[in-house]
Write a structure and sequence with these properties.
Chain lengths: ~475, ~475, ~475, ~475
């Protein structure tokens, strides 16, 4: 998919009494599936047994009835879960999360959304000290740091590890007794706390809490460590907060119904569309969203402009799940499988709304589809600025040389995608729509939470 | 799903030169997946070998890479495919289509959308004459009739069989040489003809033709038999046409981008929304569609009323693919998995738009969700009349006693679903929006193509 | 495997009270797995529902826990089962048995071991009369004949069908009420009757009866139809008996512990070894069986000769279940996977005993293995005559041109397999060891139950 | 199965030029399948990529075509493989071998047959120093020790680790460059070296070498570390040798055709049978082996006694692969599935030969089968002494309280199994048959290579 790829969703729960922990986490993971489609995992414990199941695949592929059955401990009261976008091939099954390790703290499991920018130098030092790693994931460095602090309690050890780690991260961590939630001092990735009749839950986005039967309480604060002790929510402000949450969560990643740091994604998207019309109006007959990512901004643009909204592109919900033999004959036809235009666009001047452009290939294809279906003009409007820089905090935006906005001018992009006009929303427009300080590093290269020394996110792969 | 269930989609192609027939049909089936999600099948031939693969499941479940590979005949030039909604359990694998039989005509394969209302008396007579059946599907009766006419050509035999069969049906049929397309005299189910550089194709809906690389040529006419002979499209008007195509194709079943008998589904849906506002306006702050089925009518209603359209319900695209353990605890939470409201509805008077109401359970659930999310009022508007009668022509509308509109008054329905007001579009409104004669039997009980003697669609099951 | 391939095993049971029919038949099928390894199936009924599960593969591959679960009817009292050696590829899944058909008798299921030599002319006539076939199996002709006799009871119709069919066959047949067992007038294939506390059972070989908890009662007589009526075993001598059971059942096919028409296979094999020594003694140091098929005869040969028996060839029980990539490198090594010699043969003169030679390739490989392991001489002794003719009664002996004994003289065979001497048991020796009239057609070309007109067993394939 | 369970087989190869490493190791594993049936794994490297595939199941279940395909590196020159008998449930997938770790030496993989008796104290100390473990296997302690020696070469580090580890073990170890083979100073478990045209191979038993195309060169010596450097086999006598190889390898575990420390298993088994007759003759009519484990000793007993050998028990090769529903009805019948008697035993006095008795349940069942089949007397002879003590060096003999010989007198055992007489071979008899010093700890409790402090093999499970 020609969209930035979120790297993960995390989810966890702590209950006072035995519960169908695996069943609830499985249900909740389905509400976080959009945050990562390449691997999924669940860990549960009843205080004695500690079970983990994880594999490459979508949640419904990994968690067959049989596999879920293996996780059902009658006395289970705690667990955590993860859904992952992994950047490489099938042989990286060992990077699926939760990661676990048997340490002096007992068994630990960790689920992580984000990236540590100083993972490589930390890992190199640990290796020289005799450490063993099971994965090439930066997440494992956190586990190793905890194992090296056997005389601290788990919350204290987590606080100490946060002092040594840099980057953007939201983390859930558990041993046989305690469930912890950690968020980096910039709060780059979201992490919400929920209160349920049976206890507490944590999730990347509040709608996943609802599926556990928990009510949204508040967000974990930037720099905070939260955990449950004797049924009470405990908190430690590990590091001073300096909030710059990722703007892309509101632009594209988060579900429309997610409330993040006080602002709902759908509302922000509608406002981005309104801002976009103010910055870049177009003479046209209708507004057409690219489904489903452009719907919120298209509603805003239509509302601000007074132009009619038309559902001019049909998205086949069954496309993309299937195997297509890569013959040239079929590949050419396959591009028509996912999206197809309705006749509403025939003879019309269309404002086409999408949330972002990465490589430009899909945008080019959609403009061509509309023209072929008889659209007289296509005015492409994008509800975020051009993506020109890599993200080091948990998003895969594609390599720099593949980012069309890092390689071409606005006019060159317009010509490439074949639109009659093209405009992006400004950084100011994004900030106004969201209404607070945000990380815009992928647009402007200003990284609030550090960058890797080597400027290379995946340097851990080659041990 | 609390929606009427279409029974089938059909697809076939004839090529002058060898082609990746299985690959193309597989691709095209994905464009017809919405017409049937319980079984899928493909038959191909190169004039000598005749291969069939079919099973219960979605297209992407049935057609794994391995299974598709088994169908790839190097010299294949012809094939047909089917996607099915079957009404009963897993042991009815033998009813998956295409059905085949080895007869005096050689091997025959058939794919069928619709129902024969006189299947049972015909089958009883055939059995007394020594016939053997492999399935409990009414479709097989057509195969048996053809086998009994060994001295006619296949088009002549098909014409003769059509004279004996009553009901609403669109059928594709092939032997090792010829591909035929048949449509009943009322044209109840759709069937389109496409022209490709390599030959001809037939499909329930035109967007499937596009995926085969074929252009929409025209519809098969009610009562017509069409086939390809020496590269030329041949036609026989088997029975006099008396067109009353099914209104539900435009209301809900067909893809929005499908052109059926001259009218596009999306355009008809927008007009239904406009008619609905004219018939049943509401004092409100916004129009919210039930995604995705209510989107077209909501756009029409919003446009006609001048009220803002809001995407107030988020539909999780990953819901419904997964196994959920049926504990009470999880079942209650699962209802939140599929749909969840955005904050746009808080404190607002909402016009909620859906295309139809069958049992009312889902409608009741959605109204409750909106109220819980803070909607002040919910005015439910339905872009079709109340469903009160069973369909005998290929749709499963649920048993009569489950149809809420067959059991309750308008006011009782409103009270059950918890809406502040409720209105359905009139039959006249539907006809105006579609613009021609249509079958409205499920609304008014007037059946243009006959009814079964016993008034019982599934009487074949119990042989 | 370079052995003649049995085509089938059949199994059925009738109980007065509900029973775990599917579970019992599954267990019993495992005792008949040696009779067919390419497909397996079970049909069960409770008098109302009629369920069938079948597929290509071994019994344990076809009958997963889930699939067996689908067959468990709480009130089931009757069922039949089949294990098959099919002669062609994966697309012939439709030939797996039990075959079923819905007829004027209701649903019928059939399981068949053997072949009808006049299937083709019968089928051609039925097709001209409007019949439809679902498979290319000769077995289906029997079902069609029964369907054409709607006014007879099932036993009467079976008798009538037997009058029209020629060949060697043992058949189990059932509708929702009655279970029938049929054996051709020559009794070519075995079929045994068992009596259990709950009712009656039928099986190709008695050890399968033991696994159902039934005691061996007697064999079905050649030309007899047996069925259960009101709890009583009923019998009809349909055709006059003329017994010539297949000698290969004793030579190789049947389990050693099977009692067939009064003679146990193991005892007959030991006697064949004793006869073989008398006909063809050898100057040697030890007798080595080819495991497992040569063990019985080797014991007889060693006993008669006074030479020590040595287990000089180890057979790996895990070979043959796995996928081996067909590179030349691995193929060469793979031949060592199945059999390997022990050091007992080093420096010795070995009498190597096998039950038969088909193509000679395996024999040649084994002789080479022994010589490589240091055997000074290898005297090959075969406990049956040379196979020179095809079987038309249910065994696949390989095509005539592949039969080494149909192509080469004794001395040429000896030279090809590299033995120092070679001898086969005589037809008289076989008859003495078994002790009654037997079919020896594959050795001498004298066919007691007719031959196909076209001399072509698989002529049905190409409809 | 009521037999002692071997814990593992190991296999590895080093080649000068690229080779189908995964294909060869897979083939070779099939020759070691008898050493462990619960998990299998293969690791391969081309000097850069390092791939591992492993899972619970038999070799043919784990290594599907697809999974084997994932291991095929074009430039692969080295790899190792493992087949495992794991002592606990399905959630212990993480204990499947090869185990791997990323260390300062780079990636390491290890495959292990045997046990370290001091694993627990070593692990506890490592944990206090901050180590992380991925499994509950004692094997991982070796990996951790190696990781702590980053400044030594891998052979030097292995030698140093061997100084700290006690117990009985044969180990293969590799990084991206070097393949090492280690054997404990008592040589408890076997380990053979092979020479192939392309390089060197190591395997638990020589027949696996033959499947790689390698010739048996010699055994790894007790206390030796062997590895390949610049194409030359290098060796280090790490610890002084004190050979006491496990007697059970010859009694039961090893394949009959395996040459272990100079003595072939089949020959030793025949001699055990001969010794057994000398120690415990019986008045009888025939000798019947329990297939397949009693065959060698039965041949020896028959030869020494002059009594005829009869293949009086048929072993169904298809039993045991299938799922049997655990209803009482079927469980009772299932015991007949695996073994059934031939009529040879009717009216006879039988000497029944097996290699060992663990719980006695199977022995009791077999005696009952023979009596039911008409055997007049059954004289049970066992070709090894009574098992009374647990093994700490890699064999699972069942818990002490389940060992019938640890709980009952000879006469009580005889009465329990229902034999007319019973005798076991003496320790002296075993030693004479094998011909050298052997470990007999499971018979006499004298442990040559130490015992765990806690006397508890699985103490690692509960971290």
């Amino acid at each position: 998919m020609d969209k930035p790829q979120e790297e993960c969703g995390v989810l966890g729960l702590w209950s006072q009494a035995p519960l169908d922990v695996a069943g609830l986490l499985h249900l909740g993971l389905l509400a976080l599936q959009h945050r990562g489609q390449e691997a999924a995992g669940i860990a549960v414990t009843d205080g004695k047994e500690f079970l983990v199941e994880k594999d490459l695949g979508l949640v419904h592929q990994v968690f067959t009835e049989e596999r879920l059955g293996r996780l059902r401990l009658p006395g289970a009261r705690m667990g955590l879960a993860h859904t992952r976008y992994s950047t490489t091939g099938s042989n990286l099954r060992f990077n699926a999360q939760p990661l676990t390790a048997r340490t002096a703290h007992g068994v630990l499991a960790i689920a992580h959304n984000g990236n540590f920018v100083n993972a490589k130098p930390l890992r190199d030092r640990l290796l020289q000290e005799g450490a063993t790693f099971q994965s090439t994931s930066d997440t494992e460095v956190m586990l190793l740091l905890l194992a090296r602090l056997p005389h601290l309690s788990l919350p204290e050890a987590a606080l100490e590890a946060m002092r040594r780690l840099e980057g953007g991260y939201s983390i859930l961590l558990m041993d046989r007794k305690t469930l912890l939630a950690l968020r980096d001092p910039h709060g780059v990735r979201p992490l919400a706390i929920g209160k349920a009749p049976w206890g507490y839950a944590f999730a990347s986005e509040p709608p996943a809490l609802a599926l556990l039967g928990a009510e949204y309480l508040r967000d974990v604060r930037p720099g905070e460590v939260v955990w449950v002790e004797e049924g009470e929510l405990q908190s430690l402000q590990a590091l001073p907060p300096n909030p710059t949450p990722c703007a892309f969560e509101w632009i594209y990643f988060a579900r429309p119904d997610s409330l993040l740091d006080g602002t709902e994604a759908y509302a922000a998207r509608v406002r981005m569309g309104e801002e976009l019309f103010r910055e870049a109006p177009a003479e046209a007959d209708m507004v057409v969203p690219v489904p489903d990512s452009g719907i919120g901004a298209a509603i805003g643009y239509a509302r601000a402009s007074g132009l009619p909204l038309e559902y001019g592109l049909y998205k086949n919900p069954y496309a993309g799940r299937t195997f297509i033999q890569p013959t040239q004959e079929l590949r050419d036809l396959k591009t028509r499988l996912k999206l197809s235009p309705t006749s509403a666009v025939r003879g019309k001047r269309v404002v086409l709304i999408d949330d972002s452009i990465v490589r430009g290939t899909t945008s080019r294809h959609i403009v061509a589809l509309l023209k072929e279906a008889g659209a007289k003009e296509v005015h492409f409007r994008v509800s975020s600025p051009p993506i020109r820089f890599p993200c080091y905090y948990g998003i895969d935006t594609a390599a720099r040389k593949e980012l069309i906005a890092a390689q071409k001018s606005l006019e060159e992009i317009r010509a490439y995608i074949g639109a009659d006009s093209l405009a992006f929303l400004s950084e100011e427009g994004v900030k106004r729509a969201i209404g607070g300080p945000v990380c815009l590093a992928c647009f402007n290269g200003r990284y609030p939470a550090g960058v890797p020394e080597e400027g290379e996110k995946l340097a851990l792969e080659l041990l």
